[in-house]
Amino acid sequence: MVGRVLIVDDEDTLRLTIKTRLASAGFETESAVDGEEALEKLKGASFDVVLLDINMPRMDGITALGVIADLYPNTDVIMLTGFADFSTAIECLKKGAKDYLVKPIDTTELITRLRSLLRARTSEAALADIRRDHAAFLTDQVLASLVRLSDLVEGLSGEEFGKVSKEQRGALAAMKNDLTAVFESVTSAIDPAHLGTAVPASGAKSVPFDKLLPSAVDAVHPFVKRAGLKVDVPSGSKGAKIAADAGQVQRAFEGILAALTMVAGKGASISVEESGPDPLIVTLKLDKSSEAGRKALGQATGRFADVGTSLKGLSGAAILIQIARRGLEAYGGTVSVTTSHSAVSVECRIPGKTRS
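Given the sequence above, the corresponding structure tokens read:
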């Protein structure tokens, strides 16, 4: 297990002794004579652990510890001191130090503690990856479908697609209850802090865009029908290409279109404008939305990670926009939402060339 260690001490002999012993144990090491030099070295390279003496000229170890904890939270610190002082040890631990050793340093014990610390770092990193993957799976693969299914069941229950028998009404009520329970469980299980940019599909290359938007409109036809909307899709995108996975981009536009139908006012229509080619800019404009709808989409102006500690307060429409944003950002694209009077515009920018 190789780790990068920065040794910070004003005693030349101690620095050399620790450096030599750690190198023989397989660690990569660098050294600094005081806190100021240590901070300069941290600016230019990353370290797993800093061995930091407390009493040094220019900048002492406790001051340097505070700066390291603020600027380099992923770097662990072990404090070194020439005397046993329990109160000083407690102060260092409160400031973010992981451990505390009293000189003369037993290098065998030091190596044991370093290896233990590195194992813990590896475990924490693996756990963070699992949490991110779990949140991404629930968000990208489950949450959008739950929102859309819930909206369709709501429309069926309200007889917006035709008459519903007593038996059908009972079945729809049961479905609605189950979907609500699953939705609440999924949103409770997702920590927005773990939702950065989605992972792009492998092997993405430039693909024609002209059929993606019409296919997305066809896929959300039940939502369009329920809202009584007219969708005007231009035919001018022939020849335009995007540097992204076609399926992921189509799902993003399906989500945006479904979201707009959820906030549409009576007699509304959706128009689509395109310009480009690199980036290709697609603007979907809903000419009439309800006041509640505009408020709901206001939750989609920022990114998932900015919404707080829970997704529970987000509307279904905002969730669909947020998931679409993740999908397009995976390929360097952007999604922005603006409102003007009763209208809502969603602008999507998609690169026309693959990123290096």
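The chain has a mean pLDDT of 88. Try to locate this feature in the token string yourself.
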